[in-house]
Amino acid sequence: MGFEPLANCQFLQCLFPCNYIVPTLCAIVNSNYLINRRNTIINTVELENKSKLGRISAWIFIGLLAYMPLHIFLSTWIGTSFGVLSAAKIAKDVVMVAGVLMAGWACLATGRLKSLWDDNLFKLICAFAVLNLILVIFRPTDSGAELLGLVYNTRFLLFFVYAWLLVKIVDPRVLRKRALVAVMASAFIVLVFGLAQRAFLPSDFLTHFGYSRENGVLPAFFIDNKPDLPRIISTLRDPNSFGSYLIIIGSLATVILLVKPRLKRFAKGLLVLSVICLWFSFSRSAWLGFLVALAAIYYFKFGISLAKRAKQHWLSVAVVAVCLGALLYFWQNSYFVQNVMFHADKSTVLEDPNQLRERFWRESVVKIVHNPLGQGPGTAGLVSIHNKIQGTTLNENYYLQMATELGVLGIGLFLAIIWTVGRRLWRLAGKDWLALALLASFMGLFMTNFFVHIWSNEAVAYTWWGLAGAVIFSAMFNKKSSNST
After folding, report:
1. What element of type H or E holds 208?
2. How far is CA 456 from the centre of its chain?
3. SS3 content of the chain, % helix, strand, coil (to 5)
4. Does 210 score more than 70 pLDDT?
5. pTM recorded for the entire structure
6. In the chain, where are the structural domains located?
């Protein structure tokens, strides 16, 4: 409250008999009151504007979660139709940066922006980003590949921080709910389209929407280029990315099935669609990751009882394992096993993918040993395809990619971020079903990244890190709010 204006000034008249002093004092007091009132109004308007910015930023975040699994399809279609393919590809990252700036500016009104630096996880993310920038400066390479490498290495962590900012300026419960709805709605479209690809759509269907090697996205994938073994990709970039995306959706569906009786029918349908699409992606790394995710879910839900049952029925479990192993041994040379399980039919003219991956791993380790400080962003992984100076270095392992680009320090910082995020989800998993689903899928994706460059894929990275940010920081914010009350 400011000073009330003094109209009669009788009190001042008694103190100061001189007539010319009283009007002067009254004018000073009244001017201070008006200034205070003006400042209050300005501050109120600024708060309202920043609140609007926060709401707009939150809707951008939700929109990106819904859009990312459809990005490759929509950007290729729109970009080739109107001749703006390059702009369509980078628009999502520009929009994300704009949303982060809006959220950061809105956080200034609450005075909570400074609290970010109190968190060790934020410090790790900043250190990782700074290291990328330092290597860009001191390890120069092809400028285009370098910029792409910098973006690919940091964008999903920026999206994670984006969720962190939003929980400080909007209702965390509303943000979490809307984020989950956006992910599920988008997943339903992706799953249905993937099933249609397998069921009746021709293999060249996506060429009608601009898919081609020249435009950076293949319209169809096959095991060893065999037309009778198509791999579905739905609206994502490739089968491995699609399969890894399904680890997230399948984990969500499994946990919902276990803990949400009212949504049992919905969860069953979603899980069945996910498993069918996952199988026909023929992504072995995704199959393995999904099994790891399922094991994590059942460990958390039935850990002790499951162990007791396994001990009680150990003989049955052993018999089943031996039978499966025997079947695989006797059928190891069959067309199904050689192509679907091993992707290594001896009749093919292509190099054995298992031997190729092993060779990439050995070459990556040699490069890391010779360059322990890193070669710089854009020198390894999928982005290195665009590197015209140092050439392409495919690692077939995201961790080896990080070590090749950022050196021993870089992979150390990245693994520290992974460990910290996983530990926080672990603490929440016992009481939060969404945290359990994200932790399980995180463990699955951690395994998958040993075989492919999954965090480089926008759909997988944005979906998982965006949801994880909303869950982890909503819990942190609610805890701080309860402690303050």
Report:
1. none
2. 10
3. 75, 0, 20
4. yes
5. 0.85
6. 10-484
